[in-house]
Amino acid sequence: MVAPFPTCTLPATDWNAVAMMSGLVLALPDAVLVVDMEGVVLGANPAAEELFGVTIDERVGVPCFDLIHSGDLEMALVSLTSMGEHEIGSPIEIRVKAADGWRLVEVLGAQFSDEDIDAGIILAIRDLTDRRKYEIAQGDEAVFRALMQNAVGLTVLIDPQGTIETTSVAITRALGYDPPKVVGTEFGGLVLDADRGAFEGALARCIAPTTEGEVSIEVRLMSRDGTSEAPYQLVLVDLVNDPSVGGVVVTGHEISELRAAREELARLAYFDGLTGLPNRAALITELESRLRPARGERRETIVAFLDLDRFKPVNDLFGHAAGDELLTALGRRLEGCLRATDYVSRFGGDEFVVLADPTGDEPLSGLVARLENAVAEPFSLSVGTVQVYASIGVATANSGDDLDFVMAEADAAMYAEKHRRRGVESGRSRPMGERRALAESIDRAFDDEEFELWYQPIVDLGSGRITSFESLIRWRHPERGLLSPAAFLDIVEDLSRDDDLAEFVLASAVRDMAVVRDAIGRDMAFAVNASASQFTDPQFATLVRDTIAAAGIETRWLTVEVSERSILERPASGPSITSSAGLAALAATGVRIAVDDFGTGYSSLSHLVSFPIDSIKVDRSFVSRMTIDRHCMSVVSALVGLAMSMDIDIVAEGIETPDQLNVLIELGCHKGQGFLMSRPVPLQQALELIETTGGQL
Predict the structure, then answer these.
(1) Do 499 and 471 meet the contact criterion of CB atoms below 8 Å apart?
(2) Residue 350: partners with Cβ closer than 8 Å, 6 or more residues away
(3) Are the CB atoms for 165 and 173 separated by under 8 Å?
């Protein structure tokens, strides 16, 4: 335990005696500080002002701890806090920041108290620096130098000018120098020329009065024969005023392995572990530097966002090892097709981003074509030959543009291209400014009831009779007119308002079911769509049951449509249940369940046999091409046959021509919907369809 300041608590009757001695305190050659129990300076004598190089007015009201060397601060604090616990203690020796640098002093303390004056401490401070120099025997200095010379690590004693006074024998093993030959030479001569200025700056900081005498620096040291260099971490400690040392001690150890480890960590932080390409963090850094060039410089950058199509089937059919092999091969191929100034990174998953400088010899379409061709060429993997394609979205960035905005533009363009390939309109194809404007008006749309439901008939293909209506959301925007779901559903999801919209659709559809029943005198089946997050919500089935019950309608007249992909997806984070449990809960309410967009999720009916499914809807992408594409015809024929064998209804979406209708009837497809029969219409027009046609289209 560190000994406290020697204490002498004075009774109140002796306070006058202390006051009488104030003249003597002022005359003492030793420095005296008076501090409170928190270390705040209350007063000082002239000797203290001279020692510390400050006036008493500058120190009063300021804690004294900034005067104490950081290496001795803990000892001083322990002594101060122990002041009230010990009547008698021993003086302590600490280093303090004096006017001419760090000084070694002896401190004695006495606590005082008075009824009218708060308790405090009188500190007597005696400078030991000069006296200690004479007290240290020559033998002590010899012992120090012997220890230093035989140190295992590189240890060198230099004077304040950098001249070597003595060194450990480790300098021979480390750099090949003979210790006696380097004594008297400049330590800077051992440092690589490029790092010598850094070393000289570190030495100057080390011995500066305003520092605490210890500096660490990394430099490269040269071998004696000048054929090799190695990185070293040097620690310089100022012991010039220590009489047993009298110089600056430099210790060092080689950090080649440490630097290699740092470089590996940097590689892991900024490079993709699978492909070896720069990762997302590196891409952001690179793009940020291009958007923030040197002052006065203008720079334009093309950002190409690339997403693979048909990558999931490779993983599903051949396993993730094959998928990894494909991504690695693709990374090498992309590097090979780019110019020296282009930059390619793996953004994540099967997404890559390319940064390119526009040039006059190649239009933007040329860059896209190069990337598309590189991806489209078949890949020879260990499991066989596979082929994938890429959807590429491009944005142009200029100096000063917002990085997040640029990436969002490229991402939106990529999604628009992906949907264009599938023949589906996408809200992400809209300019980012327009999408942001729509996002800002979503809350108003809910408050002002701008959303409404339209209905598309589903008919029996054999008789043309309307069997049900699918509910489709629309947004009647006050400035932009009637918007389809493709224009805003992704924005609603991004703003986490999709559950609110789903509740609106459900409530509105059930309300309209009651309207239709009252108008035609019988129940008519309606269908509503549900996302993965909705039907895996533990409360969704209860919401459906309660909403239908409140309208007095039997649950069997409502069909809940879920996409094939949503069934195969894992539930979202948060309170959720599995797809199987969610569908079972819905089926238990008595509603019918249909699988929408079937055929796009890389599964088959056999995978869904365990689910309580009443019908499937063949995706429009197959129906629209089945009369001109034998592959699509085979898919539709197989799906109809499977559905019939499993006693499941099948509905064809997107019927637009008589030829398509005739083919579906020949295949035995039960039901269908599409523009050929009717486009989606408002509720009143749906009623008119029933009344004017008698339910026959």
Answers:
(1) no
(2) 307, 308, 311, 327
(3) no
Rounded average pLDDT over 230-239: 89
Question: At which residue do the structure tokens 């408050």 appear?
Answer: 447
What lies within 8 Å, CB to CB, of 255 at 6+ separation is 218, 231, 232, 233
Alpha-carbon span 643 to 485, nearest angstrom: 29
Residue 304: strand pairing partners: 354, 394
Q: Which of 254, 250, 262 is nearest to 216 (CA)?
A: 250
Q: In whole angstroms, how far apart are CA 181 and each of 143, 145, 151, 171, 176?
A: 22, 17, 18, 11, 11
Tell me the C-alpha distance between 446 and 689, whole Å: 29
Question: What is the per-residue pLDDT across 95-111, written as a single tens digit (0 to 9) for each?
Answer: 888 888 888 888 888 77
State how far the Cα of 536 lies from the Cα of 543, in Å rounded to an integer. Answer: 12
On average, the pLDDT of the chain sits at 81
Strand partners, 271: 278
First to last CA, the chain: 99
- Alpha carbon separation from 406 to 281, 290, 373, 395, 467 (Å, rounded): 16, 12, 25, 7, 48
Model confidence pLDDT, tens digit, residues 40-56: 888 888 888 888 888 88
pLDDT given at position 18: 45
| Close Cβ partners of 45 (under 8 Å, ≥ 6 residues apart) | 25, 26, 28, 31, 32
As a whole number of angstroms, the distance between CA 254 and CA 203 comes to 19
Instruction: Report residue 45 as tokens.
Output: 């004598």
Distance CA 171, CA 164 (A): 12
How far is Cα 163 from Cα 240, in angstroms, rounded to an integer?
13
> Do 371 and 390 contact (CB within 8 A), yes or no?
yes
| Cα–Cα nearest to 390, from 283, 328, 278, 305 | 305
Per-residue model confidence as pLDDT tens digits over 451-489: 999 999 999 998 888 999 999 999 999 988 888 887 888
**Cα separations (Å) of 278 from 267, 332, 558, 584?**
9, 12, 51, 45
Closest CA to 403 of 280, 507, 297: 280
The length of the chain in residues reads 697
In whole angstroms, give the CA distance from residue 449 to residue 506. 15
Q: How far is CA 373 from CA 214, 272, 330, 390, 392, in A?
A: 60, 23, 12, 9, 12
Q: Label residues 102-127 b or e (16+ Cβ within 10 Å = b).
A: bbbbbbbbbbbebeeeeebbbbbbbb
| Least confident residue range of 65-79, 373-387, 420-434 | 420-434
Give 3-state DSSP helix, strand, coil % of the chain, rounded to 5.
Answer: 45, 25, 30
Here the tokens at position 570 are: 């894992």
In angstroms, the CA 417 to CA 139 distance is 84
Residue whose pair of structure tokens reads 């699918």 in the numeric block: 470
Are 287 and 403 spatial neighbours (Cβ–Cβ below 8 Å)? Answer: yes
Higher pLDDT, 626 or 385: 626
Angle at 410 between CA 406 and CA 414, to 5 degrees: 165
Q: How far apart are CA 183 and CA 53, in angstroms?
A: 37
Task: List the strands of the sheet with 31-36, edge to edge.
Answer: 41-44, 31-36, 120-127, 101-112, 92-98
